[in-house]
Amino acid sequence: MEVRPVRDVSFAMEPGQFLGIAGPSGIGKSTILKCIYRTYTPSSGSIVYQSQLFGPLDLAAAGERTITHLRKNEIGYVSQFLRVIPRVSATDVIAERLLAVGTDRQEARSAAQTMLGRLNISRELWDGFPATFSGGEQQRINLARAFIVRPRLMILDEPTASLDRRTTEAVIELLLDMKRQGTTMIGVFHDWEVMERLADRILELDGAGSARLRNANAATSEGGVQHG
Amino acid sequence: MNGNGNELELLPVDAGFRETPLLRVDRLVKRFGKGCAYCRETANLIGGEEDPESTLPKNRCPVCGSVIACSGISFDLYPGEILGVVGESGSGKSTMVRSLYFDDEVTSGSMTISDYKEGKANLFEASAQQKRYIRNHLMGMVYQNPHMGLRMNYSSSGNIAEKLFAAGSFHVGNIRGRAGELLDRVEIPLNRMDEPPRNFSGGMQQRVQISKALANRPPLLLLDEVTTGLDLSVQARVLDLIRGIQQDLGVSMIVVSHDLGVIRMLSDRTMVLKEGRVVETGLTDQIL
Asked: Across the A/B interface, how many CB contacts are shorter than 8 Å?
């Protein structure tokens, strides 16, 4: 069996940009993201990433050791699902990411709590176990885990999927803040409105296997809403 | 997010990246049984990559029928990395770690550790004395069965003292202090440090084993099915502990388990064994 979700997709992004990917489901939006994060190895082609430590680097061909290092320090990934060790408090789950890059434990915990506060997670839950949280809260823990290390490249796979209005606002605020600080981001959102507020450019995939890249405001005028 | 500047705070360029592997295992072969001229000659062939189309039975010598538990396992382990090893029962996982810890003598292959003689000496060929040094200083092992790693009738602190003593620490006060420190790290109450592990629950015994393995701050820790046989909440606690230790001390680990959940949570990279050979290796989220 061979499935080819993505074929001949090419795009480039400038540092500090936000690229949104749009298209109907099953078209390979997430596959593109997973190829960049190297959960999938691309069958062919190259993904050139300007790494801070290694210089220009082809992620499709890079060694595993390089990738694990990049994941710890430079590339962040947020999906809809949270997978953590059970019975570790929310604060520690988030602080863990900072410990991995050598931050002091006390400092990491306080940074984690600041982050929890920003994402509207009530104070009683800070010492609770994320596995027992509601879907939206888990999602936010997931976001906090990725945001706290301030990666250079952030990969977002529907990070606002199960969030209410107010929390979505907080997440957008946070994303815009990170963008201002220079993080490059690439993301898939099912919510067209969110996409429009965040993205500089939008990559549209359609069933015929072609991809078009355009500026975010151009997409509005051409009525891209049906892709939401 | 202090918001105090527009510049992305950059990490120091080095950021803990080390190119040289801590542990390098090359073509490890372990054969059980006497062996014959045929399998000695083809020891490399049976597990090797030279002949993928070979019709030889996968892990048995076709002539004498000796079992080849590990046939040509090679891998690198980098500093601070957790390598998961998965595979069905009988795939050679435990034989592999036991060989690495010199519990079983290997048939052929080489292992080097960058902290020992600059990574140039093949440790499988080291003398008994050198092996003892390596086991005490450079490696820690946690067995599935606590009876293997602990002396059940000695006190817990005595178990750790044994390790410290072997590494040349003779001051009783220092030994007790360090033992207390280690047991405290694995959340064993200090008022029980003089009790023998046979009085402890399975999870506690496992934690004592972990602290014993860490006694001399080895750069490498081998964990053989640590959580098997423990109930779920104790499993979670042990996993959390292992994760915490990894972050605090930066030790490299080889985690052997047939529980994919354990591997998924702990390891950076995963290696899949089948019939004594590596069938797949890659980043954990690529494989699971």
From this structure: 77
